[in-house]
Records
---
Amino acid sequence: MAAPKKGAVGPLVGAVVQGTNSTRFLVFDSKTAELLSHHQVELTQEFPREGWVEQDPKEILQSVYECIERTCEKLDEVNVDIANIKAIGVSNQRETTVIWDKLTGEPLYNAVVWLDLRTQSTVENLSKKIPGNNNFVKSKTGLPLSTYFSAVKLRWMLDNVRNVQKAVEEGRALFGTIDSWLIWSMTGGVNGGVHCTDVTNASRTMLFNIHSLEWDKELCDFFEIPMNILPNVWSSSEIYGLMKSGALEGVPISGCLGDQSAALVGQMCFQEGQAKNTYGTGCFLLCNTGRKCVFSEHGLLTTVAYKLGRDKPVCYALEGSVAIAGAVIRWLRDNLGIIETSEEVEKLAKEAGTSYGCYFVPAFSGLYAPYWEPSARGIICGLTHFTNKYHIAFAALEAVCFQTREILDAMNRDCGIPLTHLQVDGAMTNNNILMQLQADILHIPVVKSSMSETTALGAAMAAGAAEGIGVWSLEPENLSAITMERFEPQIQATESDIRYATWKKAVMKSMGWVTAQSSENGDTAIFSSLPLGFFVVSSMIMLIGARYISGIP
């Protein structure tokens, strides 16, 4: 006789977390915030040319369905009734751009990923059209004109992909960031799928007015984007539609947040001045600025933090965005082959104990905040015959921490009140060497949540709190307390400052490597004469010999 299904303490809420490297589906108890089960699928990234980064939208969608089905099977195995899942939230990699055919449901081109650099010449041409005394793009969107955001990726597709051009001409094309593609597909696709996005994702397109919370005609005209292909913009917490297939058919999708906004919610940074740093593929520091837009004077972005209900107020954030964090560890694994799993980097770094003067600037996609310098490329410098893979692993972790200090310093200058500690989350926070390095380099305590899946938690909270769902209270007195682990600085501030100053010298050396033409064509350009011990990452192995990378004496 089959064992009876057991109910969890409270209603359950699921969360799709669609990231750059992987997709996850997680199920939480809405009363305790306990994570009950999850499943993860790693994704393929395609690099058709140097600086180009693409993903298959169908692979992304299939990974979501697989994660949902496997998680439901795991719940069934422990006798948890999936009928208790009352809502689903979606969190996603932001800016990544998809265009698909609304009649067939087929993508018209690969997803162009947020890290992609092919649009640099597009950016340079557009920047010449912005009046020097009236940067209406930044004043309306809070964003600098950059390859990072969706509008220029969409413009590139419209200029270069005949399938896209034809579909737009015939009224068949739909545009969206990853959240839009997933929600449209999961709510029926060609059979009545809901074409929508939320305010946080819309605010990363460079087509959205963050003051009026609407698509902006002047911006769309500037980028020459037809407005009829854009999704409807909703709040981050309301019922968008129902799942139309699979184990969770009929369950409402009622939460949607860009991944960094979801992490801000999951960290419960609901008060003005609260901040968090997420270590994922990139690194993203967000500070809640409440109901007012604060414009940075130090290279940060102004963005929509969340709007947790149709009739709820919008909240904004200052954001420091770093392109490469966890991605540098994947690069060590997949490109250099000095580790077999991402977890090994902590072991190598621990054995080294120091980088021995080796500095790594992982500017694989140029430099984001606070520089916004697309001509930069990755370098490793300070190499000697003594340098081996252990020191390079340590330098890679230090690079993540130095980049965080750069955006934290900018945040402190913009806000006027320095942060006294840093709340952190994301997969990389499981690396204790990284967390201790971060505390040492910032010289403030780093506070890590015991719940590393705060992005998923934020999406689940938004979904469960939606009107018509109401299984998750966001009232302060009802929010579950989460235990924290604290890392205190263990080195003198002067030592931290010396290492940081040397890092800044390396950053300056990384700039000016490529022109717009070379980044678009995939060719290398502008190599200056280099001082001894200074090497471009892409030719590093050839220059210093594989034996030193491998740690062979």
---
Amino acid sequence: MLRAGAKLATWLTLIGGGAAAAAVATSEDPFLTMKVCTIVPARLLRDFITAATIVMDYEYSTMGLKQGSVEWLQAKHEAHERSALRLRELCFRNGGIYIKLGQHIGQLQYLVPREYVETMRTSMLKRCPVSSYNQVREVCMQELGGPPEQIFLEFDPVPLASASLAQVHAAKTHDGRKVAVKVQHTHLTNTAVADIATVDLIVSFLHWCFPAFDYRWLVDEIRESVPKELDFLCEAKNSIQCLDNFRRMSPHIAEYIYAPKVYWDLSTSKLLTMEFMDAPEILDVNAIRQLGVQPIDVSRLVSQAFAEMIFKHGFVHCDPHAANMMVRSLPSSKWNIFGRRRPQLILLDHGLYKELDFETRTNYAALWRALIFSDANGIKEYSTKLGAGEDLYALFAGILTMRPWNRVIDPAVDHLVLEGNDGEQSELQVYASQYFPQISELLRRLPRVILLMLKTNDCIRAVNYSLLQGSSLDTFLIIGRVSSKVVVETKRKLQKNLLSSPIIWFEDMLLQARLLCMQIALWILQLEKQWKAMFG
């Protein structure tokens, strides 16, 4: 193990040094980049110490214990907790790309050990780095040709919020428009090459030590996505394409989806000036209710919006955690007789989008339709087409729905609804722990775009659960409708002769009938719950 550690240290030095040299050679400001690269050796040393400590902790914590025994499980749990804390501190100390890595891990519920998820999820969004005002001025002068106080009429030096790659300041333009200015943390572009290379090496080393630990796909995803997220003009274009997709392909809900207007004359690849949105975050239920908007309506809108993006548009916002969504009442809506107004969903941070090709998108839609209707054969067929294989399709279905296989194929109308109680959480955690090697193998097989859909799926589930304080059958009905419609439309496009039309039409009618039955069953379940709440 010590010999392996020495090899790791050597390779870290070589790769990090090579990446640093490449950064200096290609940078527009070699002197600044040279300054940045002086901190790389310290980061490499921290990486090595953390990786080596984690490896040795796992090796010696379970030494002499029978695998699967109570003592072995307890030792493994404690090693997970210690290692998660070490990884968290490494992410905080190195910052930048490492924070992004920690956030990814925190959103992979039941795909990585729960100790890592819980540790990262509770801290990564709350302790992001904050650039000093001098650093913000430096970026503004470099990108817009002057300091913030000159470019803007007003500029608040205290950021409204800070994330892994940037922070946001409130400002006012010289013509009186209130704006939000997103400023990239300094030096990220320069350190990203070395950071990704070293993270890749560490993950590969951990996989070599523990073959069941194979999260190299996560590094591949970060390597592909981070350069796009560091280009704020790409983010601005994504927001425009997102709204355009709703107008063209989902006009029935287009007015309910909004993204802040971009001010192109005040935006560059490292500084983005947008319309200031004065609206509550999506989990501020009390503020949302004060607008006359009901949380159940917001939950339905979120489910509908992302079902349309995933199954129809094939262009998906893949970072929909709560901080990236706001809600306001639809500007054109009025109070109805029940004292309610319709919501409008405001999507923020459009840096991370994924495109699903036609085949992947339609197979994924067909899989979700099979899941909603408890179609075991359909689940197997489309899981296999997406890469899960005939041996892991049931596990794939379980990860997508957070349900064990017997519940996935249960014909009950509410078979996918999560209760959210402690017993259910424990069952899921045991399930994830028991099948950890198979989960790792499944993640290796699946296309990376599907892995991002798993992350998106988990984010949406968490938001809806917080809005409603529980799971709702409405979400699955919406997914069922949108995915079924896409499957039928695809069959119509691919039909080879006119004789296929009546068959497709009949299949569509059967699907609509089943969805109607599910809707009626939902109403009955809701009435039963209300009756029990009122009369016990």
---
Amino acid sequence: MDMNFNHHNHHLCLSKCPKQRCNTQWIFLDVHSDITIEVDGATFALHKFPLVSRSGRIRKLVADHRDNDLSRVELCGLPGGAESFELAAKFCYGVNFEITSSNVAQLCCISNYLEMTEEYAKGNLGFRAETYIDTIVCKNLEMCVQVLQQCENLLPLADELKIVSKCTDAIASKACVEQIASSFSRLEYSSSGRLQTNRQANGDGDWWIEDLSVLRIDLYQRVITAMRCRGLRPESIGVSLMDYAEKVLIKKSSQWNSAVQPKADIAGSFDHLQRLVVETIVNLLPVEKVIIPISFLFGMLRTAMMLDCTSNCRLDLERRIGSQLEIATLDDLLIPSFRHPSDTLFDVDTVHRILVNFSQQDDSEDDMEYASAYESEGSHSPCQSALLKVAKLIDNYLAEIAPDANLKFTKFMAIAESLPEHARTAHDGLYRAIDIYLKAHQGLSDTEKRRICKLVDFQKLSQEAGAHAAQNERLPIQSIVQVLYFEQLRLRNNLCSSYPDTDNKPTLHQSWRVGSGGLSAAMSPKDNYASLRRENRELKLELTRLRMRLNDLEKDHVCMKKNMEKSSGSHNLTGFSWMMKKMSLFSHSSSRGSSSPSKHSQETDFKMTRKMSEAHIY
């Protein structure tokens, strides 16, 4: 709806000449101009009487210079510039024009500047513009958005006149009304006669989201804040924030993946406004978990790093990501190193901080709200369930970054040690990542190799991973001994499980003493307990013998190194062969370099069976 001003159909001539006065036409043919108004370089040849009758500011200027016969006035800092003054001059002359959502903010500001109030004329411009905002603009969400757009160049005066607050409150109120109406439209009666919400029905209560994306970030922030105070759903606010970020930041996102332009130039092409958009959106994000998709949070984190946003902004995103890290993917964690081209390919420090946030999150506050969602998942608590998912994710991440030649040992260890020991039920993924790292970083010292291999619990390796580790020459000798020991235990358990009947099942001690012969009747509980104790002692003795053999091997290794320094290449080979013969634990197997898994498994089983038989007979 537009408001028309139809007074006298006079013609107002506007002559504009930037920074100089141009020839002007008379407003009335029979009346000469007696005052010239200059606004931003544009001159208006007007008459004093129409102006002083409605403008208090011009009336005061003319009264103050009555003795000097004021003929020229320059208005500096006039809101809206020459365009706004032209509308005010038309109103003073009674020329017809329309008040619309595109000019009402300018009219409010210019009327305040020129003091066109009811004090000087009834139904003055200020009153009519304010009435238009209250009765027409505030009842329509689209018109409120248009007025806010006009206020971008009229601040802070538009804020002082409460134009911005009226429009933001009206938008928030309309959005909440639409939300309630949409919720009612999705109500339906179930088969039992109860009223329930149809979640599959498409709600149209968020149609306003796209309209807000045209606002400047400071005004958009005020609208979202007003909506939050009014109780708008966090889901709707989150969708609006994602839509705004996509439309504002996507314009320059194509430059990020440019292979020609250096990264420093890409970061420099983003101005302060883009950085302000990211920081403001992060501050407006809902505090509820799972409201914002984690992929969007990772995207905002990459953008914040690219634009060099404040540390508080990046730490806030890392904290939000850490609170729901269990639903992240490997691609999410692969954050490129934007600022340090000579450093690692991926930003490992950021991922480490995210893991620290995940480990330090307060379960009593953050996870109790979602406890009901995990009750049917099994015996694991919500925290343990999340730990298992994150552990698998981190193992894959370590395997992905391990081949990087610039990845330092301390950073790899920091990522691997960031999770507690009970987070991994199987260590195949961690072993795979460590093996890749050892292969790509062959310059590690023996101490570093032993330290990194201590992260793996070889008892939690699968049969395939254990077979691979037993013949992995990149592992320290101590780790290989552990693998062989646990493989021996697994072999014993498999042999014991081959007796399905509990009554006829032999104990570990009996099974190795009688070999393949017949067994006696079932043992009493007392005898069974004594047999288990004997078996435990035998295992401890066997472990002690393995440790003694390991000490002998280390001594032989030291002697061999001294001999190698004095002998030739051929003598080195002979010495190495002599040492291998001394290793009686491995003297029965020649399959370490074999590439056939089945052949190696058979020979390893034979070797372990014979060795364990000898140990028990002993």
---
Amino acid sequence: MVLVGSHGEKDGLNDDAVLDYRGNPVDKSKTGGWLPAGLILGCELSERICVMGISMNLVPYLVGDLHISAAKSATMVTNFMGTLNLLGLLGGFLADAKLSRYVTVAISAAITSLGVILLTVATTIPSMRPPPCDDYRRQHHECIEANGRQLALLYVALYTIAPGCGGIKSNVSSFGSDQFDVTDPKEENAMIFFISRFYFGISIGSLFGVIVLVYIQDNIGRGLGYGISAATMVIALAVLLCGTPWYRFKRPQGSPLTILWRVLFLALKKRNQSYPSHPSLLNDYENRKVPHTKRFKCLDKAAVLDDDCAASTNKNKPCVVSTVTQVEEVKMVLKLLPIWSTCILFWTIYSQMTTFTIHQATAMHRTVGSFVIPAGSFSAFLVITILLFTSLNEKVFVPLARKLTHNVQGITCLQRIGIGLILSIAAMVGAAVVEKERRERAIQKEIKLSAFWLFIQFFLVGSGEAFAYVGQLEFFIREAPDRMKSMSTGLFLSTISMGFFVSSLLVYIVDHATKKSWLRTNLNKGKLNNFYWLLAALGFINLLVFLILASRHQYRTHLPIKPESREEELKSLNNEMIEDVEKKASIQSLKNIEP
């Protein structure tokens, strides 16, 4: 099994080699392609079934069964989702540094299965819930809230699921893309199509979770609903393991965080060193794997060959001097951070779809004939919109954009993100208007507004996610260094994580600043619409910052290609030196003729 080691044990194979499960060079006719990529996709499909089935219907359980306040319940859900996505960074780090993507996904799937089984137990045992509460006591806030002992198993279950799902999310798309050879034009096109189908596939899993599982949880039993989620993850893990002979594997190539911190440390340590007259004099310049750039020039000092590095033996010691490739990889990561920061607020707005929007549905008219639609199932509008716009992007918007812009991509990843941000702002404006109307009707006319009005915010956020999610995922994978691919996916997931944590922070600040007058369990006594207006205003400011940063971003594929030979580099260096001498001579001549 490969489950080969980190740094290549087999002679003649470099760290970039693609191997089969026995550690031998792959036979492309027998490995990789759509079949193994599809088996890998099953893990993400099951992960979405679990996460959506839990997150989209957890607030009604916390408020209705455990009698926890709406603001606290929303914070519990966003903290759980934030932690889940943040641990994607850990999963990416472990895969890149030591375990490999395959092993990380397999272990993460097993951990997720255990967590969902624990959640099934936590929601099934009667002693894990406080006494039932009738409507009269609920209106007068006399319900007994679940105590620490009753919440303990629930917390253990949720925070066992979090690292498992985080490890799957940060590696499964990268492991799937490893099944295609990007140097083969045919397979490269198949990989691009796979990324699109990957997102479409996980949306199907989300739809199953919010419609089928939420209905089972509300009408048959939460234990059964969560039990089905656990079973799907166990089956997905078994399928993943069965496909092992057909996968293509890449060795872990060392910790990207180690490279990051080492370059920053050496650049700081050598800050007083002079820059060489030409970049080709930097360490290992002739063997660089990415083009040298002039941005963040201060980091080049980490690759400066000073007296301590003069000996040929010291040139290969990473603790003494970095290579140009390592410095450029760190530059690539740093270039992602400005765009990364502006993606956070989109997910803060998205998080409202799993918390306060679901809570709104519980206070609205949800009956169709004699059938009462579960509050959590209204999030199906979100998933359906995502599926619709994912297809429209591929069939309509992108081909149209290609004709208008003459760009192969049609819509660039940054343009997708920008469209997503605009739609998220519109969603919060729509949500504020709907909530104001719902509250006025409930108070003045004692009429419940139809919950189908929530379609406005679900539609706008869903269409925004179809653009933003794909745009962000493509941006981080394409722009990050190749050997940090899993880490870059984790970095993308951290924007989602920070979005949920920012939501928790905003709820805390608003709840205290307004003395609990905006965010109330009884929405008729609160002013949730003001919270939505606040998010719309913050989203608009964030959009302006994004537009400025995006206009200054230089795509990785647009960077100049390095000269093909050392002779060309020396010729370039010689020409630059001649131009420099001529420039200085011209300046001196001008000085000589000054009066």
